């Protein structure tokens, strides 16, 4: 087929006297090369063929073609401006971002049609100046569509040596909506956390510190959020009651091996900033794990149950005292047991009582416990 093509072109050169150009490919050392043959008619019996290697040109053309296709099909809006700032190229994505139907609508127009007001002024005074100094510049901006509606965009500019500018634009409307929704969600969550009478916290077991706590930490334990974050491990004896801190490792193991979303509960005593002990009931769940599945962070709430614990102790003491009286011959004989119960409850080592006699004229010393 190749030989037939060359013979036909030779004959055409003879018949018309015109130069015939033929491009073809041939293998050279196992690699395919491109060639161009120019066939020139000389005399009835003679033609001249001039052959040159055009492999590099063909490869460059192929690369340019692929780049052109890529630019045309890119999801980012791409435009090229000449040194005067006029649009000389624009792909379909850019037309869509700015709401134009055809390339003819913007070819030869100034880049200024894509912005207005304060944003246009910013580009004229700041962005172009920075582009000239640095050669490239990226920024977020608010573009202006053909119908004058606004579109949030991300702009990347590159200045070429001849003064032309490549402008790549990405529509970030969806990202901005997501960011706005996230901010609203965070605001809502913060309002809930701020209004909650309970302590809300996130504790990092690897870093051994509280990374988040709401303001209720101050009202319940007397520490500011910054202070509690700087304290470090909350199960250490200086903060958690020693009798309770020994229960924490087993409790955390339960949390780590529990089902997703499962809530765990534990009661313990935490030292208030004023030195007193406060009873807290915590309800915790897994908040984050490491890549290898180990427990990293727990999310929990802490409720102050100190008053209810004190009420429970008072009821227990009252019941014990009542039982002691009921099992004794009279109040006087029950008094040592009652004193013992009181001492245990309030942490005293001993106590005694002075009780009026029946006629009220003397005080009698009771048995001491």
From TrEMBL:
PAS domain: residues covered: 185-259
A molecular function GO annotation: protein histidine kinase activity
Catalytic activity: ATP + protein L-histidine = ADP + protein N-phospho-L-histidine
Keywords linked to the UniProt accession: Kinase, Phosphoprotein, Transferase
A Pfam family of this chain: PAS_3
Gene3D superfamilies: PAS domain
Record-listed E.C. numbers: 2.7.13.3
Name the record gives this protein: histidine kinase
Record organism: uncultured Microcoleus sp
């Amino acid at each position: 087929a190749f030989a037939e093509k060359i013979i036909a072109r030779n004959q055409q050169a003879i018949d018309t006297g015109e130069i015939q150009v033929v491009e073809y490919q041939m293998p050279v050392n196992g690699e395919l090369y491109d060639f161009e043959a120019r066939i020139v008619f000389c005399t009835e019996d003679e033609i001249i063929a001039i052959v040159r290697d055009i492999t590099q040109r063909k490869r460059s053309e192929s690369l340019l073609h692929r780049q052109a296709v890529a630019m045309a099909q890119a999801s980012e809006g791409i435009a090229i401006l000449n040194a005067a700032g006029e649009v000389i190229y624009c792909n379909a994505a850019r037309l869509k971002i700015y709401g134009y139907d055809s390339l003819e609508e913007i070819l030869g127009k100034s880049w200024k049609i894509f912005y207005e007001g304060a944003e246009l002024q910013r580009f004229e005074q700041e962005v172009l100046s920075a582009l000239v100094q640095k050669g490239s510049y990226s920024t977020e901006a608010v573009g202006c569509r053909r119908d004058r509606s606004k579109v949030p965009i991300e702009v990347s500019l590159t200045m070429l040596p001849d003064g032309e500018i490549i402008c790549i634009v990405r529509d970030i409307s969806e990202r901005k909506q997501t960011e706005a929704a996230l901010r609203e969600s965070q605001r809502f969550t913060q309002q809930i956390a701020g209004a909650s009478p309970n302590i809300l916290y996130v504790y990092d077991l690897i870093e051994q510190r509280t990374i988040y706590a709401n303001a209720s930490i101050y009202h319940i334990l007397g520490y500011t959020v910054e202070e509690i974050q700087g304290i470090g491990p909350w199960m250490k004896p200086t903060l958690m009651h020693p009798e309770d801190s020994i229960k924490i490792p087993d409790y955390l193991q339960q949390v780590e091996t529990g089902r997703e979303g499962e809530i765990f509960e534990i009661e313990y005593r935490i030292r208030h900033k004023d030195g007193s002990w406060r009873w807290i009931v915590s309800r915790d769940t897994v908040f984050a794990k490491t890549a290898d599945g180990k427990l990293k962070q727990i999310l929990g709430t802490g409720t102050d149950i100190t008053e209810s614990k004190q009420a429970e102790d008072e009821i227990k003491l009252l019941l014990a005292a009542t039982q002691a009286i009921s099992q004794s011959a009279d109040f006087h004989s029950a008094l040592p047991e009652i004193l013992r119960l009181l001492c245990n409850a309030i942490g005293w080592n001993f106590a005694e009582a002075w009780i009026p006699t029946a006629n009220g004229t003397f005080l009698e010393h009771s048995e001491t416990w």
